[in-house]
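Exercise (ungraded).
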Amino acid sequence: MSVVPDSTTEPAAAGPEVRPSPTRGRGLALRAAPLLVLFLLLAAVPLFVAPFTANTLSRILIFALFAVSLDLLVGITGLPSLGHAAYFGIGAYTAGLVSIHWTSEAPVPVLLAAAAGAVAAAATGWLAVRSGGVYFLMLTLAMGELVHQLAQRLTGVTGGSNGLFGIPSVRVGGEPLTLAGLLYWYVLAIALLGFVGLWLVAHSPFGSTLKGIRDNEPRMRSLGYSPFRYKFVAFAIAGGFAGLAGGLFAGLVRIVNPTDTGFTTSALILLAVVLGGAGTLWGPVLGAAVVVLVRDTFGPQLDGHGPLLLGVVFVVAVYVLPRGFAGLAGLATRRRRAPGGAA
Amino acid sequence: MAPPFLARRRLTTTFGAGALALTLAACGGGSLGGDDGGSDGGGDGGGTVRVGLVIPQAGVYTPLGEDMQQGWDLFLDQNDGMFGDYEVETVIADEGESPDTGVPAVQRLLTEDSVDAMVGIVNSATALGVAEQVTEAEIPLIVANAGAEAITQDAASPYVWRSSFTNQQIAAAMGTYLGEEGVGPVYVMAPDYAAGQEVVEGFIEAYEAAGGTVAGQALTPFGTTQDFQPFLSGVQSSGAAATFVFYAGGEAVSYVQQYDQFGLKDSIPLYGSGFLTEGSVLDAQGESAVGVRTTLHYSTEIDNEANAAFVEAYQAAYDELPTTYAVQAYDAANVLDRALADVDEVSGPAIAEALEGVGEIDDSPRGPWSFTNQTPEQHIYLREVADEGGTLLNTVVQDLGVQPQP
Amino acid sequence: MAGWFDANLVSILNGFAIGSLLFILAVGLSIVFGMMDVLNLAHGAFFLVGSYLAVTFVAGESWAGFFTALGVAALVGLLAGGALAGLTEPLARRPILDQALLTLGISLIVAEVLSIIYGNDVFSVPEPPALAGSVSVAGSAYPTYRLMLIAVGLVLALVVWLVVEKTSIGALVRASVADREMVSAMGIDNRKVKFAVLGVGSLLATVAGVLAAPVYGARPGLDKTILLLALVVIVIGGLGSIRGALVGALVIGQVESLGRALVPDYASFILFGTLALVLIVRPRGLFAGKVAH
């Protein structure tokens, strides 16, 4: 977390961070312990909580992975996509169809889902990444809506608006994972691999170049980089991880419907990224958790006032958390960093 | 309006304490054990049955949810809040607009709230999405609106029942009627989504079998079409002698009004699936709707004793006319009442088994009906909108008889 | 060719009516974004406020009710816009997505408050007396009210054009679109301009809601549909350009009317297909509006 959060809000302030800062190694060691504790806590969850809570946590993990994949575009590359659900949905449909017609043996459906997401993102991304800002937002929205309409129309394949139902349980070694706790472990394992993958991409030299393009595209171009090529690859990677999340989703809820590819899902996940703090990778995890809890867990018990609660959360967050949840930690980090004058 | 047995307190307990309570409340169990849902709800609980009512409380389907809740509440009011010898505890969950909210709502009822039975569900995708889960949990679900045929066919299970209709059932009745009447070529229109497609298929199949010819058809963008002019000009140029459509909610209002404004109403009679003119949309359509003919399994104007008593009680309680959505929930309650009169203990499997034996529902406002393949085999009525002293009503033109399941 | 034209005359005419309506509902969004860099996702919700005000005040067919609704809607719009100006001021230096979070939050709250006040039923609103009913156009009936919408749209477009091109306020507007810092350097209070612009922009949304009510009615969920339509219109034309909003509205009006009449089987794809096509060919809209963020 040493370099990213500050530069998202003041794009002109800092140049591209092409080399990792020397403090990173020490920071890594310091962070390893809490991460291990967090991992153990997450892994122990099914021993203590009821099935519904385990399901809710699985859902949060999946949407968190989806949000982090979008953050690679929004926060790291500076491309705000309003059509990211298209690749999530394509992944979900792929995993669902593979499970129904071929095999639900892990990890085949999710790997194919990730591949489908990446291929679909590559097929559309070369058109999308040529624009930027609000135009990129709207172009991705249009592409997402076209995918949504296709899902609605291709009744024979997707089941149309009735959804793709009858998806069999995920199997591991031939055994179906019917218990919520086992399914949670499966989701946790794949989602963690996804998080690690995205973290590695964002912190690789490739990721640094993306940040450079985000902060100062002309400069990167004059240094000999091709922004188009980098943005395109980032778009395809983000689509792949969104497809992975979609594949997990199909295995969890066992129904995929066109809404999962459409505007509402895209907008919610984009707002989850903003709510968490774009560009930090871990902030969107919290953003996704809040969105899932408000919309799917508490919302249905509010006599129909779920959307109101969501609206209030968004408005309050804008003022209370100016940099998303990540901003809270950002405060602490800055204080620590200030005397040393790093970065 | 909200009878005391509605368990509002859940809202404060769960939400007030937040996620922590959600986690800790369940601490004993863990989520790796076998199934513990459902069987602990009743039996020894001193004669209560806990029913989950899953209805849309937010989103475009909310008016249907309100009607369903009123129908449900009315039946309980009339029966002292009892099904058989068991006191009913209703747990309400918001279905929302899509399975994204509906499926978790059902999951919560199954696991956290350990209900013994569930009623409701407007959206077919949500019903299909939970069919397998209710089967695994062995908790009967009585679908009180969703009309996709697959719910009781492809997704059939001993635990999935339906007190409403199938999309094709209603459309086929009109298809047969128009075909036999020989009205001339018919133009067919519906929104471009699963239910619309099922209605179009069901109508055309029955209509052509009865000797009719189709002048043309159009599927309009679902949920976002406000302006039907481009499609109406297609109707005009097709040389159709009549139009058959399936729309509901906001689209039904726009369609019927614009059909009048663009001058088609007088030259090409409008027929539809009953939802076109059902409930609050009829008031919004106003005079434009007068003369529109539809088929449905219910109308407030059906002439039988049960219906007269039902309409009167409903009006007294809510100061408005009942709708088919209210009847579907009312009948779901009736069916559960009959089933629970037959069980020795409150459990999902026992209720599901008792549902097999309920036989004919002879005191339903819609007229007698019975389950065939767990979905109603029922009379379908030909209705016509009429203005009676300033109130728009769906008068019954003809009883088209019992419509078998496709 | 003549035969084709005759057959589709009503659809073309209707395209102009819908285009006019789209212009009225989108121009405010475009002005606000162009001048103040505020992407107001509550525009659709403000529109719906106008529609519900029409439900309240237009009882039966009467001009008095219609004008009352317009007046109240204008006032409510001004106030809402002013409030939004105040709310977005602290966000001026933050990424545009933060504004999206705020305004979408506001729009969820407004929609929910409307559903608490008016319930969730669908309402229709009668036209003013002289405009009820239909007239004959090329042998087919056409609703009179929609013809009036074409006139209102033209007048509004003319007024906006005159104000922007011929007045000192217009000069300020153009200067703000081009370079906001420059304008504040000239000693003009940027905040006052912002209040005025957001007020007028939101007023246009609520007034459009009233004007559209006899065509679209009022119902939950309409706000989202309208917001998406308005966004498509201003993006196709080019953000921040009034000429762009007008052309975008006319293009989408024809796409939604003539386009759907010609290829009804692909009606579901045609709106966003057009948007995607335009942005692929012209990545910054037809009139290459201002550089977005």
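Further reading is listed at the end of the chapter. For now, observe: The longest strand of chain B covers residues 375-388. Residues 1-28, 35-45 of chain B have pLDDT under 50 and may be disordered.
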